[in-house]
Structures are given as C-alpha cells and as structure tokens.
Amino acid sequence: MSTSQHATESAVGMIAKAGPPATVSLATVAGVQVSEILLWATLIYTVLMIGHKLWAIWKDVRSE
User: Do 41 and 35 touch, CB atoms closer than 8 A?
Assistant: First the structure.
C-alpha cells in the first residue's frame, strides 16, 4: 500500500470519526439540545431498521 493511499484512508477515517461530534456541536450552537438530537437519531434509525427488515421479509416471500 502506498503512502498516499494510506494517508487518504486515514483522512477519510478521521473525517468519518469527527462527523458526529461536529454535528452535535454545531446543532448545540444553533440551539438544539443534545437530547433532541439523540431522540431524532434513534427515531430515524428505528424506522430505517424496520424498513430494512420489512424489505428483507418481502424479498424472502417473493422468492418462495
């Protein structure tokens, strides 16, 4: 693996790791409470997981 490729992967990893804290910080500065962010994130995650599970069930039913 070349040095530039390793540096690119490291930069992408650093950006991905810094994303959630930066988002929370910016939202807090904008006046949104952390508890509201967590509530909405949990709601969105739950809806996405239910949708994914329903899609998987539908796919299994159609293939049989």
Answer: no
Which tokens sit at 5?
A: 């490729």
Q: Where are the beta strands (DSSP E) in the chain?
A: none
Half-sphere exposure of 24 (CA within 13 A, CB side): 12
Render pLDDT for 5-63 as a digit per residue (tens, 0 to 9): 566 668 778 887 887 788 888 888 888 888 888 899 899 999 999 999 999 999 999 98
Q: Are 48 and 58 in contact (CB under 8 A)?
A: no
Q: Specify whether the CB–CB gap between 30 and 36 falls below 8 A.
A: no
Q: Where are the domains of the chain?
A: 1-32, 33-64
